[in-house]
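USER:
Try writing one entry.

ASSISTANT:
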Amino acid sequence: MSENPYAPPSAGAMPTQAEDQRPALREIVVAWEKLRIWYNAILLVPGLAVVAMWTGQYGMPLLFGLVSAVVIAIGANICFLLGPAAELYLRAIFRQGRPLGRGRALLFWAGVVVSLGVFVVATFEVWLL
């Protein structure tokens, strides 16, 4: 007679594939959380410059400018999550779980450039109004 498929796993069972991937997932999360500090520091200067321009030069009320800055910062950090998600998928699909090497830096700096581009668009949008 075969084993009961509904029986709980035994204590001596081999680790599952998900348990084998925990160190790799931890490494991805820790590395990207360190990069988040740099990401926010890099975007802080142009972000403050844009808010100062909006409030000073274009007459936006300061409170509205600060609320806008907080909303934009939250949105930027949500977009930041595309980096670790992309690395996770790239490692799983193309690298069989192995690290990307310099791919993480490439993903990070590509995200920073795109984010800085958003600030440029926001600046020119105000000029066009």
Q: What stands out?
A: Residues 42-128 form one domain.
